């Protein structure tokens, strides 16, 4: 199993367990997250890019991976993603650099594994 498949399998497994607990607040948070990224005054592509930059600044590697895959699936180019990385690093400072490294590695995994 490659890194992309491993990340998605773990995320799916844990989301199922979390949602099976049937906690109203957690279910509403998950629903709010889904609805936030739906088409609206801003298109989905813009929202995913915003999510990616925010995730990098907040230094959430799982969130970065999630939004990177969404960006990849929505057709963003490597150049577009690197411009988003530059915004995240400017806003977040040098502490974001380790997350940038892991993000670039995951993007490369997406390119390698999604083209198979």
UniProtKB/TrEMBL annotation:
Q: Which InterPro entries match?
A: AhpD-like, AhpD_core, CMD-like
Report domain Carboxymuconolactone decarboxylase-like positions.
Answer: 27-105
SUPFAM superfamilies reported for this sequence: AhpD-like
Name of the protein in its database record: Carboxymuconolactone decarboxylase family protein
Instruction: Name the residues that span the membrane.
Output: none
- Organism, by scientific name, is Fulvivirga kasyanovii
Report the coiled-coil segments: none
